[in-house]
Amino acid sequence: MKIRPLPPMNSLIVFEAAARHLSFTKAADELNVTQGAISRQIRHLEEYLGKELFIRANRNIALTPTGLQYYQTIYSALLEVSQATAEIKKWQGEHQVTVVTTNAMAALWLLPKVATFQQNEGVDLRILTTENILDLHKMDCDLALFYSKAPPANMKVTPLFPEEVFPVCSPHYLAQFQGEITPDKIFGKSLLSLDESQKDWINWAEWFALVGYPMFKPKNRVNINNYPLLIQAAINGQGIALAWGSLVDDYLKSGALVRPVETVLRTQANFCMLEPTDRGVIPSSVKQFRNWLLEQLPGQVGQKGLN
Which PANTHER family does the UniProt record give (predicted)? Predict the structure, then answer.
């Protein structure tokens, strides 16, 4: 059944504040509007009801008998709405886990595993992505997953897996090379490069230098500013890309990608789980997700069983 009649809903908020303070000025300050706006809303409500709600005497106001009766009813109704809303927001806060990560970790590592976590009913997972780890201080998150050489301050850091960097390409791309497969053949044709704006990620020049290879100059180079798209380009046979271990494991296992050389660069950097140190009480849903996430690591490395 349709609920009617209903007054202008915004005017009820204004009326409740003005009646509680017995002051249009204080109501205006609370609602961050002008005193004139409060007066207009009250007049609009009185015209709708056909009754005076306030007695106006110079700069003072008082509730009429009708206004007092209406205030008591409206206050109770708004209080119930407020309490119901607070319960919903509290449930959401306790049952929603917000994870901030990069496009690469979201697409290549986290999302392929999420299906197993979704068996835990009653926990909603919210995934936000950013490529800049400095954005974490502006985002409200429970956990963050990032590759970083220098994690930001005020974060508890749990290493997930070490950085291992090696070339990958599609089997079809590799099959075009006849005879002995040498580094100059492999790296001299087409290199897929992550855009230089991604400064945390090792580029080809750094990788060649750190593994002791000469600086190869490919005939073709494709620059892409999105790592999952870079890997997709390698799968499509468009060239050779630098891959990070654990992010491409599924593609290597399926055969969609292969390693044309066995050379691997291992660094001191890690892919990490970051947790704000100023969160206060940690909801059980966050603990549950955290423990599940650590169980996804090779050898279940990490701090497990957080209570």
Answer: HTH-TYPE TRANSCRIPTIONAL ACTIVATOR TTDR-RELATED, HTH-TYPE TRANSCRIPTIONAL REGULATOR
pTM here is 0.64
> Per the structure block, which two tokens stand in for 284?
């059980």
Q: How far is residue 205's CA from residue 28's CA, in Å, rounded to a whole number? A: 62
Q: Residue 248, Cα to own-chain centre: how many angstroms?
A: 22
Please give the CATH number for the structural domain made up of 9-90: 1.10.10.10
Close Cβ partners of 55 (under 8 Å, ≥ 6 residues apart)? 61, 62, 63, 64
Residue 3: per-residue pLDDT: 72
SS3 117: helix
Domains 9-90 and 163-268 share a fold: no
Helix H or strand E encompassing 105: helix 103-105
Q: Hey, what are 54's tokens?
A: 């306030």
Span 234-256, pLDDT tens digits: 999 999 999 999 999 999 999 99
pLDDT for position 24: 92
DSSP conformation class of 264: -
The listed CATH number (1.10.10.10, 3.40.50.1000, 2.102.10.10, 3.40.190.10) that belongs to domain 96-161+270-296: 3.40.190.10
How far apart are the two ends of the chain, measured CA to CA in Å?
Answer: 48
Regarding the domain with residue range 163-268, which homologous superfamily does it belong to in the CATH classification?
Periplasmic binding protein-like II (3.40.190.10)
